[in-house]
Amino acid sequence: MSKDNVHIFDTTLRDGEQVPGCKLDTKQKLVIADRLDQLGVDVIEAGFPISSPGDFKSVEEIAKLIKNATVCGLTRAVRKDIEVAAEALKFARRPRIHTGIGTSDSHIKHKFNSTREGIIERAVEAVKYAKSFVEDVEFYAEDAGRTDNEFLARICEEVIKAGATVLNIPDTTGYCLPEEYGAKMKYLRENVKGIHTAILSCHCHNDLGLATANSISGVINGARQIECTINGIGERAGNTSLEEVVMILRQHPYLNLDTHINSKLLYDTSLMVSQKMGMPVQPNKAIVGSNAFAHSSGIHQDGVIKNRETYEIMDPEDVGVNESSIVLTARSGRAALAYRAKKVGYELTKLQLDSVYVEFLKFADIKKEILDNDIHEIIGSSNINAER
Ligand code: KIV
Ligand code: ZN
User: Fold this and answer.
1) What stretch of H or E contains 168?
2) What ipTM describes this predicted complex?
3) Where does the record place the Pyruvate carboxyltransferase domain (predicted)?
4) 172 lines ligand 1 (CB under 6 A)
């Protein structure tokens, strides 16, 4: 059975770049955009063109460069924003304007001092105006996670009538639980007239560490686009991490959902974004962290050496990591020591291994991690005649 495609909308260069310290210049943005296109993302959100002349220039240059992906620019529901975005996108092969407005009661009252009717009016006007420049218009209902479902359905219906092609349902504050976010998508799918003409999109923030789980729940319940960033960077605790959602869908084939991402480029892309933004990746980050395929406890190492599948649910090569690593610490066992010793050239007999292991534990209790050089030293001081 063929799988349904989930569109990957990458917002590393817009929501990701909003993070303090992550600002990129146009040249850096172009390199990342080019890599995102090779990676196979469906949409690149290149920036917020009205926000600064530099961002306008970046969006314009990315629009000229990108051959495959749709290039998107963010706007508020403001005519001038939309005009500037349309101008920045004019060279794009596939341009998209992403416009929208806050829809939760809190945003309506505190940000806009308006009413629900007033917000619908502005949303419809913005979508119609954006539609006068480009065919592909995505509408975002900011803070949809805390917006009452009935009102959300009403505004979605009105913007579809105005021409919206994609409906972005952001959990802007990262508040929703996966069940709740999934139920929101299901409600919209079942209650918005004309919904079959538009794509529902997940845009989840990670304030409670649920961005990935919420996005997956969203697509299980009918959404067909996920907005995400490389390494999950983004405002506050970040956005949904691209590499996580891609690999979750790939590792769970029974969901019948997949993306067009070339997963073998994930690790390299993570490294590139981390270096260009000066934003380190936490070692225990799923998929791309330096420990994601490192095994350090004796029980796990013994299992992985016998058969990788005992403790690995995916092949590291599928995400661009050469091989998993066996890290030697004081929690490692003989199997791991023999394995690493062999890698640096020693074939130890069982008796030799017993002696070396005693020496190894003395070292490992002092040092956090035993490296290749240490192995030579340990074997050298172990009173055995090991062959190299
Ligand atoms: O988190 C959010 O609501 C956003 C919108 C501007 C799409 O980033
Ligand atoms: Zn966001």
Assistant:
1) strand 166-171
2) 0.99
3) 6-267
4) yes
